[in-house]
Structure formats: C-alpha cells, structure tokens
Amino acid sequence: MMLGLLLARAGVPTVVLEKHGDFLRDFRGDTIHPSTLELMDELGVLETFLKLPHQEVPELSAQIGDRSLPFADFRHLPTRCKFIALMPQWDFLRFLAAQAAPYSTFQLVMRAEVTGLIDERGRVVGVHATRPEGPLEVRADLVVAADGRASVVREKAGLRVQELGAPMDVLWFRLSRGPDDPQQTMGRFDVGRIFIMINRGEYWQCGYVIPKGSVEEIRQRGLETFRSDVVRLAPFAASREREIRDWEDVKLLTVRVDRLRRWYRPGLLCIGDAAHAMSPIGGVGINLAIQDAVAAANLLAEPLRLGRLTTDHLRLVQRRRELPTRVTQGLQVLIQRRVITRVLGGADQLEPPLLLRLFARFPVLRRFPARLIGVGIRPEHVATPAVAVGLRD
Question: What is the pLDDT of residues 216-228, one digit of tens each?
C-alpha cells in the first residue's frame, strides 16, 4: 500500500490487489516506529495520521519475573516523533489507502486473490487473480510481491528461500480490558513462558509465546490449564480467562525467519515479508517492509514512469535493502538463541541477561537499542517527487 501511494504520487499508474474484502485482521502487527512516523511527516500527513486512535510508547521495558527493566528510550532519537505509535494495522492501511485514493494513477482492487503469474519468454508481465465475479488478469511493467511470509507470488516465481529458523510460535487471543488495568502495552518473561499484551483500547491483544511445534502438546493439557497459565502471567486479568471459550478463540501464528537469496526476476520484485520474513522480536517487520517500499519507489519511479525499467534497477533495490535486513535478522536470531530459547527451555532460575541489566542501570545506554528499533539500519527517506497528475474529485 505504501509503495502504491508513492508510485501513484510520482505519476506511475499503479494497481494494488488485496485478497480480502477489508483490512480487519486481528493478528497483524501494531507498531508504527519513529522511522515510519518520520516518513508520514515527509509526506505532509503526520498531523492527520496522529489524529487516529493510537497509544504512544516512549520507552520499552522487559518484565523478567517480577522485575521491570527498561532497555530502550526513544526520547532522544533525531526524529520528530520520539515514540512508537501502537495502532491497529487496519487503521494504518485504511489511512494509506485514503491518501492514495485521490490520485488518478492509483487503483485499489479488493477481494482480488492472486493465483499465478503471467510469464512471457522468461519475464513476468502480470498476474492472474480471482474475484467473486470471475477471473481477473492484470498486466504490468512490474509486479511487486508484498503478500507476506507465505507469499504466493514468490512461490510461483520459484525464488529460493534461505531459512534462518525460529524457536517459537505465538498463540494469539483477546481479553477484555478493565478500568483499573495498566495502560501500557507489556511483555513478561517468566520461567518457561513469554507473554505479551497489546493495549487495543477496549481489549487486550494477547500473545502467548510457545516453543516451536508445541501447540498440540499445549492443547492436550487442556483449555483449563491454558487459562490458568494466562492468569499466572497477568493476575489483574483474573476472572476474564473464561473469555477464552474454546480453542477456536486461540489462533496460532507460525513464526518464520527467512530471506530470499535473490529478491527479483525480470518483471518481478519481492519486498517486506515476501522477501524477508522477520521475527516478531522488536516489532520491526512492518517498518522494514515500509523501508523497502520507500527504497523501491525512490529507485524505480522514474524508470517506470519513462518505460525504461530493467532488471538492473530491481537488483539495486535488493542491494540497497539487503544490509539492513541481514543486520536486523542477525540480531533477532542472536536474541532468539541467547534469550528466547533459554526462557522457553524452562530454566530453573531466570536471570536477566547482562546487557539488559546494564541498560536498566545506565539510562544513556538505552539510546542504542532505541536507535536500532526505532530508526534501524540505513533509514530511507521519501525522494520521489509529487508529479502533477490528475486528481479524482
């Protein structure tokens, strides 16, 4: 959606295909990082964006047992917004769609599920899709796969995936919020358990992190045991565990960390999770995807508008974004091995890692993880000009 907005704004006719009839997915990420808020400012829409319901988080802490340890302070970042904004992703997507809608060069087609690629002489020249009213064929100078970690487009393109591994999966469910509940989003590490609660206003979006592949074992222990575990990790929510009526209320998110060896083919480019599935650690997946979109727009808008796009241009996008991806995934995998695996392994005594203790003791050190999480490696900036194109009424 971000790439569609930037390309349409730069005068490139763009069609965005969305599989579903709306954007309402409960288990999409909610974190809008300072780097993304900076992009909203560069587009001149930040003030409008911040009028949407959201929660501002200037500092992150980790709850290790009964100890709360702050480790990232965003208040010193060289950005206009010095906080993470927590906002349901459907609101963010609707906002981007609304910003793009006035451009005559932008078209959003809902309920259009891509099923295959149109390949002519080794070059991708479009996609096949299905809609309720029948099949749809869209031809284009460039097809961009932005369809996530289970990308149909990258599978059809035959691009090779390098698996980096993840030791956990996540069980997602809702609990209602009470008037005396904490306001902030929170995460808790306990012996054998990791629990995350995201403040969604009227309810908590809860993530119960489990060892990879252990969901059937958890189900076999029974729903009552699962409810009891939830109450132990969030005592203030006691009496609300019955809102988990059955296992249908608990959705499994399979965590993957991988990346394509090559993000492109002639006529095709993968970005976001379709190019590099991220671990949920740091909540950076959305923001890495948006950075990919900005880089792609900066590098591809002019050759697309002039009809001169080559595979070399696509190669430049991967070259631009591969280092941030590798560094971020490398840090995520390190944390998975050193922290997540140990916690989920059920060590008898859970001691905070030395680095986390240093962040808690010396506030100035919290600026470094804040920079990595909030801004990232090689942040992108909008360089595509707003071309004079027709606007819809």
Answer: 999 999 999 999 9
